[in-house]
Design a protein that fits this description.
This protein starts with a helix and ends with a helix. The chain is of the alpha+beta class. It is built from two helices and four strands. It has a four-stranded antiparallel β-sheet, covered by helices on one side. The chain has one domain (3-109): Ubiquitin Conjugating Enzyme (Roll), CATH 3.10.110.
Length: 113
């Protein structure tokens, strides 16, 4: 399955999520922009956090890069984020994976305690 087909399928699954919104660029389905809503009862409640997910052309064989563009006090902006599911730690990702939706990845990215 090509990366584009896989991402279309995952995009459909992500549309059901309530804590974030995601959409690919019209010119490149491998670049997604997302908005995370701050989790209730956290310092981030009521906030909106914009970022970018850059999927490689051979996804899901290689993990995506994840960036945060909105300052949150937790992550450096415009820098690849350090997650075990991201390209920051390619050596840790040795499997095919479904990026959207993952309760654990949502918990990490939405600033749940």
């Amino acid at each position: 399955m090509s990366a584009a087909k896989r991402l279309q399928r995952e995009l459909s699954a992500a549309a059901k999520e309530t804590l974030f919104r995601v959409a690919p660029l019209e010119a490149d389905i491998c670049i997604f922009h997302y908005v995370l809503m701050g989790a209730p009862e956290t310092p981030y409640e009521g906030g909106f956090y914009h970022g970018e997910i850059r999927f490689p052309r051979d996804y899901p064989l290689k993990p995506p890069g994840i960036l945060m563009h909105t300052p949150s006090g937790r992550f450096e902006i415009n820098t690849r984020l350090c997650f075990s599911m991201s390209d920051f730690h390619r050596e840790l990702v040795h499997f095919f994976f479904l990026f959207f939706p993952s309760p654990e990845s949502i918990r990490v990215l939405t600033f749940f305690p």
